[in-house]
Specification:
heterodimer; A: 423 residues; mainly alpha; 75% helix; globular; B: 525 residues; alpha/beta; Rossmann fold; 2 domains; six-stranded mixed sheet; 24% strand
C-alpha cells in the first residue's frame, strides 16, 4: 500500500512477500480478519439475544448452549442461503424429471434468486460507495451521500412520471437525470468549498438535512410531487418505460442498474489512474499546495470531484427508483448515506475494494429476510454486523492485538478515517 | 535511576561503544564509538543520511541498537524508551518541536510531569518559578506565561531546551537545531549553548553546516554512511571537514565565467503585495533580470523574499505593480499561465510546495506537464512516456532512488531537489526562480544544484536566486539585490564586501541609487 514497503519488496522473493503480508497483517489480512471477528461477535450476539436461547439457558444450560450454537450457525447458514445459493432449492431442481422441466417450472429463477438479490442490494451501495471513495482519493470526505442520493432520486422520479418518452430513451433520460440531480447537490458542496473555504464535511452533513426535508416538502404537497389521492409521503409511480430493464427476465430482480454500477466503478478507476483529470484529483488530494504551484487549479478540482461524486450518488437514487421501488417515498433514501461511507472504508477507497465491499454488504442485506424467518433473529443483526466490520477495519491495531500479528509498516483505514475528519 | 541526581553540577561522561543499527539490508549505524565528555559541545557532522539522527534516536531510547552498548560514567545502561533516557539525564531537542501551540510556555514545560497539590490541582506557580529560574540561569529570556504559538521559532526552541533542563538533563541532544533558525537566532542559540556548557552540561550538536560546527564545537565527530570517519578539532579548515564528510574534495565555490547578459527576460516593476490583514509584505520592488545573468536576492529571512517569489509565480495576488516575462505581462496570470509563459520555479519549501510526497518519482517528474504531449493525448495519460521520461531524468540528474516508482517523499532532501530541478528545467523556460535552492542539502547536493543553476545561466536563462545564505549568494550571483522589510535596499555587484551587504540587510539606505531603479519607475508611468 505504501511505497516504502514497495521498495523493500524489490529484493525479497514473492513467496516471502506473501508470507510477510499475512504475518505482519497487511491491509488485506486485516480486512479479512476484521470481517471474521465481526462475524464471530455477530453470531454470539444473535445467539444470546435470542429469547428461546435465553429461556433454555435459564432452565438447562446444556441445551441452552446447543440452542445458542444452532442459532449462531443458523444465522450464517440462512444468510448464505439467502444471498448466494440455497442447497435445498438446488436439490429440488435436480429432483425434477429433466433440466428442461426444471427450467419450465421456474427453478432457475429460484436457484439464482439469492445471487440476483445480492446484486440488487449491492447496486445502490456500490454507486453510493463510489461517491465517497472518489472524493477520498481527492482528499475530501463526502458525508453527503444521502443528500446527493435524494437529489438524483427526485429528478429521476420526476422524469419517470412527468414526461412520456419511448421505451429505451425514457430509461436513459431518467438515469442521466438522476446523475444530474445528484451532481447538482454535490456541486454546491464543491462550490462552497472552492469559493468560501467551507469544510465539505460540515456542508454535506447540513445538506443531508436540507435535502431530506426538501423531499418531505415535495412529497407532501399535492401540487408538487405527492401521488394524487394519497396523504402519505409518496410520489406517483414512474412509467413502465422508465423501469430499468431486467437482465435475466422478470424472474430475477437484477436489472441494468447493476451493470451501470459496475461500469461506474470501472469508469472511476479509469478516470483516477489513466487520465489527466484523475492525475489532478490525486495530486490535489495528496498535496494541494504542490498541486497549486505546479499550475493546477485546486478549486476547480474540488468542484469537479464533488460534481462527479454527487452524480454517482444520484445514480444510486435513480437505481433504487427505477430498479426496485418505481416510486419515491420518504424512506427511499434509507441509510444509503451512511452505508456508502462503510462501503468506501471497507473498500479502503480503492475501486476494486469498493466493488467487493458493496457485494458483501449487498449479500448481508439480501440474506437478512431469510435469516429472520429461519432463526427469529431480527434483520437488524445485519446492520450491526456491517458496522462492526467497519469498526474493526478502522482499528487495525485492535485486530493485530487479537491475532498477535506483528506491527505492519503499512498504514490502514484508521488513517482514512482520521484524515477524513481532520483538516 | 540515580544518575540524574548527582551532587553538584559536575556532568556525566557518556559513551557509545560499537553501536550498530540495521534497517533491513541498510546499515544505518556501523560500529560507532562516541564519547561525550562533561561540559563539552560535541558536534556530530555528516551529510543527510549519514546516520546522525539514527544514532541519536538510539541514544534517546527511540530505537534499540542491534549491537553495542551505551555507558554512563562507565556503567552500561539500556534505554527501552525515551523515559529511560530522560531518567538517565539525557534530553533531546527535536528538529520538529514537540510543543502544544496553544499552551503557555510553563504549561508546555510541565507537560507530563505536572506537580499537583493533594486536591489534584496543578501547581502552576512552582512551574512558572522553575521556568523563570532556569531561564535566568542560562540567559534564555523566557516568559513563562507567553502562549507558545505566538513566539518566534528561536524562542520555541528554547522552550524545548528548558523542557529538557527541568527534567534534569545533563546531556542535551540538539538535532539540526539551526535548520529552522534565522542567522540572528542562530547566534542567540550559540550564546545559549555556551551558557549551558559553562553550567556543566554536555551538548551533542547535530549538523551538516560546517561553519556552525566550527563556531560552536569543542570536538567534532564526522559520520559518513553510518560510520565514524574521524574526529577533528574545530580549528580544522572548512575544506578538511567537507572532505571528511563527503569523502572527496568538494568545490565550495562554483567556478563560472563572467555573465554575458542578453535581453531583459524578467521585468518587475513597483511590485507590491499587501496581505488581507493589511500588512505590506513586498513594497514597491522593481528589478530587471537579463537572459544569461543571475540575480541573487539576499536578506534575512522574513523580509518579504518568500512573498516576492510567490507573487512572481502568481501564488499571491499582486496589489500593485507589474510582472513581465519575456515581454508578456503576466501580472494577473494564473500559475499555470506563467509556467507556460516560460517560468521555471523551485519553491522554498520543497516537501510542501515542490513535491507530492506520496506520488512516485515518475509522477512528480511530470507534476506540471502531465497534461502536455507526450505525457498525455487528450484526456488520456500516456503512462509509457511518463515512465520513460522519469528513467531518462533520473539518469541525467543522478537522482538516487531505488526505482522511478518509489514515493518521492522517501528520497533524501538532495534527491528530492534534483527531482524538482529535473522537472522544472525540462519544460521550455526563459526564467528560473529558485527560492532557497540548497536549504537543508548536503555538500554534494549543493554542489550539484549550484552547477546546474550556473549551467542554466550559461544557456541564456534569466535566473533569480532567493537565498538567506550569503555564501550561496556570493557563489552564484552576478548581481545582488538586498531585501529589507519588503523593499530592495540596494543592488550591488558580487564583489561587494560582506559588511556592506550586512548594512543593507539591516535596513541601511542606499547612498548610491541602484543601477536601474530610476529608469523603470519612469517607464512604468
Amino acid at each position: 500500500m505504501t511505497d516504502t514497503t514497495a521498495d523493500q519488496h524489490q529484493e525479497t522473493p514473492r513467496w516471502k512477500r506473501v508470507l510477510d503480508a499475512v504475518v505482519e497483517g497487511n491491509s488485506f489480512t486485516i480486512t479479512v480478519l476484521a470481517i471474521f471477528t465481526a462475524m464471530v461477535l455477530g453470531g454470539l450476539l444473535a445467539a444470546f439475544s435470542n429469547t428461546t436461547v435465553l429461556h433454555q439457558l435459564s432452565t438447562s444450560p446444556g441445551t441452552g448452549l446447543r440452542a445458542a450454537w444452532d442459532t449462531g450457525a443458523g444465522v450464517y447458514a440462512s444468510l448464505f442461503e439467502g444471498s448466494i445459493f440455497n442447497p435445498h432449492t438446488v436439490a429440488a431442481m435436480f429432483s425434477q424429471s429433466s433440466i428442461s422441466t426444471a427450467i419450465h417450472n421456474g427453478y432457475l429463477g429460484a436457484v439464482f434468486g439469492p445471487l440476483s438479490e445480492t446484486c440488487v442490494q449491492a447496486t445502490p451501495l456500490l454507486l453510493a460507495g463510489l461517491a465517497v471513495a472518489l472524493p477520498y482519493q481527492a482528499g475530501m470526505f463526502n458525508i453527503g451521500g444521502q443528500s446527493q442520493f435524494i437529489g438524483g432520486a427526485i429528478v429521476a422520479t420526476y422524469l419517470g412520471y412527468g414526461v412520456h418518452l419511448p421505451v429505451v430513451i425514457h430509461v436513459i433520460v431518467c438515469v442521466l437525470g438522476g446523475f444530474a440531480g445528484g451532481a447538482a447537490v454535490g456541486w454546491v458542496v464543491g462550490f462552497l468549498k472552492a469559493t468560501t473555504g467551507a469544510h465539505e464535511v460540515i456542508v454535506t452533513i447540513m445538506l443531508n438535512y436540507v435535502m431530506y426535508y426538501f423531499l418531505s416538502y415535495l412529497l407532501g404537497s399535492q401540487s408538487l410531487m405527492q401521488r394524487p389521492g394519497r396523504t402519505d409521503l409518496i410520489s406517483p409511480a414512474i412509467a413502465g418505460n422508465a423501469h430499468l430493464p431486467h437482465l435475466f427476465g422478470s424472474g430475477l430482480g437484477v436489472s441494468a442498474g447493476f451493470l451501470i454500477a459496475l461500469a461506474c466503478a470501472l469508469g472511476v478507476w479509469w478516470l483516477l489512474s489513466r487520465t489527466t483529470t484523475g492525475f489532478e484529483f490525486r495530486a490535489v488530494g495528496l498535496n494541494p499546495h504542490a498541486s497549486r504551484v505546479a499550475g493546477m487549479s485546486v478549486p476547480r478540482t474540488w468542484m469537479l470531484v464533488m460534481l462527479i461524486a454527487g452524480g454517482l450518488a444520484g445514480l444510486a437514487g435513480s437505481s433504487v427508483v427505477q430498479g426496485t421501488d418505481f416510486s419515491l417515498t420518504f424512506q427511499s433514501s434509507g441509510t444509503y448515506g451512511v452505508d456508502a461511507i462503510t462501503v468506501a472504508l471497507l473498500g479502503r477507497g480503492k475501486m476494486s475494494g469498493v466493488v467487493l465491499a458493496a457485494l458483501l454488504f449487498g449479500a448481508l442485506h439480501a440474506g437478512a429476510p431469510l435469516m429472520q424467518t429461519n432463526t427469529g433473529s431480527p434483520v437488524d443483526i445485519v446492520e450491526v454486523l456491517q458496522y462492526m466490520i467497519v469498526m474493526f477495519v478502522a482499528a487495525p491495531p485492535l485486530i493485530r492485538a487479537i491475532y498477535r500479528l506483528r506491527a505492519a509498516k503499512a498504514a490502514g483505514v484508521g488513517q482514512v478515517v482520521s484524515k477524513g475528519l481532520s483538516a | 535511576m540515580g544518575w540524574a541526581r548527582r551532587e553538584g553540577g559536575s556532568g556525566v561522561e557518556l559513551e557509545l561503544k560499537g553501536i550498530t543499527k540495521r534497517f533491513g539490508s541498510l546499515v544505518a549505524n556501523d560500529r560507532i564509538d562516541l564519547t561525550v565528555k562533561p561540559g563539552q559541545v560535541h558536534a556530530l557532522l555528516g551529510e543527510n543520511g549519514a546516520g546522525k539522527s539514527t544514532l541519536m534516536n538510539v541514544l534517546y531510547g527511540l530505537l534499540q541498537p542491534d549491537e553495542g552498548q551505551i555507558l554512563i560514567d562507565g556503567k552500561a545502561v539500556q534505554f527501552h524508551s525515551p523515559k529511560d533516557a530522560i531518567g538517565a539525564g539525557i534530553g533531546m531537542v527535536h528538529q520538529h518541536f514537540m510543543l502544544v501551540p496553544v499552551f503557555t510556555v510553563a504549561d508546555n514545560v510541565t507537560l507530563g510531569i505536572e506537580q499537583t497539590d493533594p486536591a489534584g490541582r496543578i501547581n502552576r506557580r512552582k512551574t512558572r518559578d522553575d521556568v523563570r529560574e532556569i531561564s535566568h540561569r542560562y540567559g534564555l529570556d523566557l516568559d513563562p506565561d507567553a502562549i507558545t504559538e505566538n513566539l518566534p521559532v528561536g524562542i520555541q526552541q528554547r522552550v524545548e531546551i528548558v523542557k529538557a533542563l527541568v527534567r534534569e538533563a545533563n546531556t542535551l541532544i540538539l538535532d539540526e537545531p539551526t535548520a529552522v533558525l534565522t542567522p540572528a537566532e542562530t547566534q542567540d542559540l550559540f550564546r545559549v549553548v555556551r551558557e549551558l556548557k559553562a553550567g556543566g552540561k554536555s551538548i551533542v550538536f547535530i549538523s551538516h553546516k560546517l561553519k556552525e560546527v566550527q563556531a560552536i564545537a569543542d570536538t567534532i565527530t564526522v559520520l559518513r554512511r553510518g560510520q565514524v570517519v574521524g574526529t577533528a578539532r574545530p580549528s580544522a579548515s572548512e575544506d578538511e571537514l567537507a572532505t571528511m564528510m563527503v569523502g572527496r574534495d568538494v568545490q565550495l565555490v562554483v567556478s563560472k565565467d563572467a555573465a554575458k547578459p542578453g535581453d531583459v527576460a524578467l521585468h518587475v516593476d513597483g511590485l507590491t503585495v499587501v496581505e488581507d490583514d493589511g500588512r505590506v509584505r513586498v513594497n514597491g520592488v522593481s528589478f530587471d533580470v537579463r537572459a544569461g545573468e543571475i540575480l541573487g536576492i539576499a536578506g534575512v529571512q522574513g523580509n518579504g523574499q518568500t512573498e516576492l517569489s510567490e507573487a512572481l509565480l502568481g501564488l499571491r495576488p499582486v496589489t500593485t505593480g507589474t510582472v513581465t516575462v519575456a515581454g508578456r505581462d503576466v501580472t494577473h496570470a494564473t500559475p499555470r499561465q506563467r509556467l507556460h509563459a516560460g517560468v521555471a520555479y523551485v519553491p522554498e519549501d520543497r516537501t510542501e510546495d515542490g513535491l507530492v510526497g506520496t506520488f512516485t518519482v515518475a509522477e512528480n517528474m511530470v507534476l506540471d506537464q502531465y497534461d502536455q504531449p507526450p505525457f498525455a493525448s487528450g484526456l488520456r495519460l500516456n503512462l509509457g512516456a511518463i515512465e520513460k521520461n522519469a528513467a531518462d531524468q533520473v539518469t541525467a540528474f543522478d537522482v538516487r532512488t531505488q526505482s522511478t516508482d518509489a514515493a518521492a517523499g522517501t528520497l533524501s532532501g538532495g534527491n528530492q531537489q534534483k527531482v524538482i530541478l529535473a522537472r522544472e528545467l525540462a519544460r521550455e523556460h526563459k526564467v528560473l526562480i529558485a527560492s532557497q535552492p540548497t536549504r537543508g542539502l548536503d555538500v554534494g547536493s549543493i554542489e550539484f544544484v549550484h552547477k546546474r543553476i550556473v549551467q542554466q545561466r550559461d544557456h541564456g536563462v534569466a535566473v533569480v536566486i532567493v537565498s538567506s545564505e550569503l555564501d550561496e549568494i556570493y557563489a552564484l550571483a552576478d548581481r545582488i539585490a538586498v531585501m529589507y522589510e519588503g523593499k530592495i535596499t540596494g543592488f550591488r555587484p558580487p564583489t561587494v564586501p560582506v559588511g556592506e551587504l550586512g548594512r543593507l540587510m539591516a535596513g541601511g539606505t542606499d547612498q548610491a541609487p541602484a543601477n536601474r531603479v530610476e529608469d523603470t519607475t519612469g517607464a512604468a508611468e
